[in-house]
Design brief:
CATH topology: Immunoglobulin-like
Largest sheet: 5 strands, mixed
CATH class: Mainly Beta
Number of domains: 1
Helix content: under 10%
Distance between the termini: 51 Å
Structural class: mainly beta
Strand order of the largest sheet: 5-4-1-8-10
Order of helices and strands: EEEEEEEHEEE
């Protein structure tokens, strides 16, 4: 650097993290389910659980990229898909590391129903978590897969 030039270190901006709980309602027995962290061939599966003893819960913190307009933009290792159409994957069977499973599926949980007002409210006090309930079993009795319809709207709980 020459004389008189200034060096201003870049400080990584802190992103808000939105606590989210996904409740997989009544998944099939002995099938593994887990959250997908990362994309493409370089993903990991976290919080792997077996169905059969009631509902399964997955807790994740979604990073929020700041923006002043439009819907919230979720980023980070658990947010999948293009901006404006983000979702979270829950791996099923072999996609959750259950090598002997006959199931190789992913459940796509859309984040579209989460608006700015809901995000602000959830982040306004510590101990609040945004929650969604999704079906763990399809109409044919097999594990859910593809894009699922939430069983109720996103809402906030105190944890």
């Amino acid at each position: 650097m020459g004389r008189g030039s200034r060096y201003t270190p870049r400080v990584a901006s802190a992103r808000a993290q939105l606590p989210v709980r996904l409740v997989l309602v009544n998944p099939p027995t002995d099938v593994a389910f887990g959250l997908q962290k990362g994309r493409g061939a370089k993903y990991e599966t976290e919080q792997v659980q077996l169905g059969g003893n009631g509902d399964l819960e997955f807790n994740v913190a979604l990073d929020l990229k700041s923006a002043t307009t439009g819907p919230p933009n979720f980023v980070g290792p658990f947010a999948q898909g293009p901006a404006g159409d983000r979702f979270v994957y829950i791996g099923v069977g072999t996609f959750a590391g259950q090598t002997h499973s006959c199931w190789s599926r992913r459940i796509k949980v859309p984040l579209k129903g989460i608006g700015r007002t809901l995000v602000r409210e959830a982040l306004s006090k510590p101990g609040r978590t945004l929650i969604a309930r999704i079906p763990g079993t399809g109409r044919d009795g097999s594990p859910s897969c593809a894009t699922v319809r939430l069983l109720s709207d996103w809402h906030i709980i105190s944890t």
